[in-house]
Design a protein that fits this description.
mainly alpha
Length: 295
């Protein structure tokens, strides 16, 4: 129970992070906001890395793995975060949260290319989530909103990012990989910002609250909570609890941004959440739990 509560807190922090990201762009452009918040996240993890290093709990198989892993995972994080942040200018936090959450069902599907096994629950979850996406985002004339489309492309990169992390986490301590990917993403974001955006010190100061939340709390604290909690949490339970990030994104949008969802959109959100949950729980696990409950 303590581990599950910590995971729930992390999901809530990440969900409300969509609110901070939306508010931050009232003063900063997307790439500037991402660049600053991810570098803040990088520095926020230094104390944790220092502590784990003192405890001899960090490992790196080879320097080249650290370089390759940091660059690849960092670039994928940059792509996913960029599509998400730019897309937030054209859609709601609720839509962004639920569509981004589709990476949960995309990961096992893309994993087929890496010869990962995929159960029937994944395909069932994908089908339900796809129907939910239709009700949430597809407009009259079978068109999808620009912001929602960007979030959907971002979800693909988030899924690729998860697979890359899974690959390199076997060679590099996760917290080290996290800190380095945040650094790469932050630097790339600031480079793009310097080329296409205009950022002022006044804008940075005006957005300090959103940057503090998105950089230190959403990245530093929530990530630490996840690392600590998943040591004592069932993997299936952890995935389900963390997927509730999408629900908190919708709640945050309604409370803090005065967003509203139509009945059609709410129905779509419900189907997407159901699809995400089904994709994370093998059918044999459900059958086993049902059998245990009956007996």
């Amino acid at each position: 129970m303590p581990a599950n509560l910590l995971l729930l807190l992390a999901a809530a922090i990440w969900g409300f992070g969509f609110v901070a990201q939306t508010l931050g762009m009232e003063h900063l452009s997307p790439f500037a906001f991402n660049g600053i918040r991810f570098l803040m996240g990088t520095f926020s993890l230094i104390p944790l890395v220092w502590y784990l290093r003192r405890q001899n709990k960090l490992h790196v198989s080879a320097p080249k793995d650290l370089v390759r892993g940091s660059l690849l995972v960092g670039v994928l994080l940059f792509a996913g975060a960029s599509f998400q942040q730019v897309g937030l200018q054209y859609t709601t936090a609720a839509n962004a949260g639920f569509i981004t959450g589709l990476y949960i069902v995309l990961v096992p599907v893309l994993g087929l290319a890496l010869k990962h096994t995929t159960g029937l629950n994944t395909w069932l979850g994908c089908a339900i989530a796809a129907v939910g996406l239709y009700f949430l985002s597809v407009k009259d004339g079978m068109s999808i909103g620009y912001g929602d489309a960007l979030q959907l492309v971002g979800a693909l990169f988030w899924a690729l990012h998860i697979l890359a992390v899974d690959h390199f986490a076997k060679r590099i301590s996760p917290v080290v990989l996290a800190m380095m990917q945040f650094f790469v993403c932050g630097v790339l974001s600031l480079i793009v910002s310097a080329v296409i955006e205009v950022t002022t010190l006044d804008g940075v100061m005006a957005a300090w609250g959103s940057l503090f939340y998105a950089g230190l709390i959403s990245v530093g604290i929530a990530y630490t909570l996840q690392v600590l909690a998943q040591k004592n949490a069932h993997p299936a339970h952890a995935a389900i609890i963390l997927s509730l990030e999408t629900v908190f994104a919708a709640i945050g949008g309604i409370i803090f941004l005065d967003e509203s969802l139509s009945v059609r959109a709410l129905f779509g959100c419900g189907l997407m959440l159901l699809g995400m949950l089904i994709s994370q729980v093998p059918l044999r696990y459900l059958v086993k739990s049902r059998h245990q409950k009956v007996t």
